[in-house]
């Protein structure tokens, strides 16, 4: 028996926590929704339903242990499915899963952006923040995704989540581009977040959605000691600073690449890349730097799914 917020789930077949996550996601998305998706041809099904189908097929091909369990290095499909389920679990268990976000996750055209917003929420919760969604019906101003308050220090931050769409990827229309034609431009996404001019120090989560080989080149730092980002990132940051009067409109930028969907069916999940940039010239800096560092550390926990069931509080 597993309690997730106000939801109570039960099954005799759950030996390990990922077993529960496998069944938990259909509970959240809804039985009727799932059944309707399964009636469609596979290529027309929602990305999440495809991930689940491929995950189950992958696990059935693995050798079975004497206790009836299966173990394997996850494929990209399986890692994507379980990571989504775990982030949903984190958000719902903290009482923050709202129907608006869930409806966007169900919608194939809105799934990618909503998925990255879910990652941002789960990351802030893992970092020790409480979350408040702004009143989106207030037309007098533009709103950040949410406001997060660090429970230990009281530091408030405004959070924006942006995800780069690419042709033929994650259900976006078109054909996938050759790697040499993949766009490395993220300025418009960042500027859209900056122009909202939120009241609190801004933390922006940017999903680069790059093929793994390109992400390795872009997001791997040129040096760790001292920390120096790659040349393309240095150029991007310099452009932002210059455009905003030699100050940065953000306190922290978390650039991620979780390329589950770029992997082949039977291959291990491609390596993720997470790069956090703490601004030294922020026009609205965070007073509590430990709160900002907690977000950086929590972002790197993405995909670290426990095998054992979490203990109840």
Write the layout of secondary structure elements.
Layout: E1 2-4, E2 7-9, H1 17-29, H2 31-38, H3 47-60, H4 76-93, H5 99-106, H6 111-126, E3 129-132, E4 146-150, E5 156-163, H7 187-194, E6 202-207, H8 212-219, E7 223-224, E8 227-228, H9 231-243, E9 252-257, E10 273-278, H10 289-299
Helix pairs in contact: 1-4, 3-4, 4-6, 5-6, 6-10
Low-confidence stretches: none
- How much helical structure, as a percent, in the residues? 25-40%
What is the string of helix and strand elements? EEHHHHHHEEEHEHEEHEEH
Compute the number of strand runs. Answer: 10
Measured on Cα atoms, how large is the radius of gyration? Answer: 20 Å
Number of helical stretches of at least 4 residues: 10
Strand order of the largest sheet: 3-4-5-6-9-10
Number of domains: 1
Percent in strands: 5-15%
Structural class: alpha+beta
The major β-sheet equals: 6 strands, mixed
Multimeric status of the protein: single chain
Spatial gap, N to C terminus:
14 Å
Note down, in words, how this protein is organized:
The protein is of the alpha+beta class and 313 residues long. It has one domain. It has ten helices and ten strands. It has helices at 17-29, 31-38, 47-60, 76-93, 99-106, 111-126, 187-194, 212-219, 231-243, 289-299; strands at residues 2-4, 7-9, 129-132, 146-150, 156-163, 202-207, 223-224, 227-228, 252-257, 273-278. A hairpin with a 2-residue loop joins strand 7 (223-224) and strand 8. The longest helix has 18 residues, at 76-93.
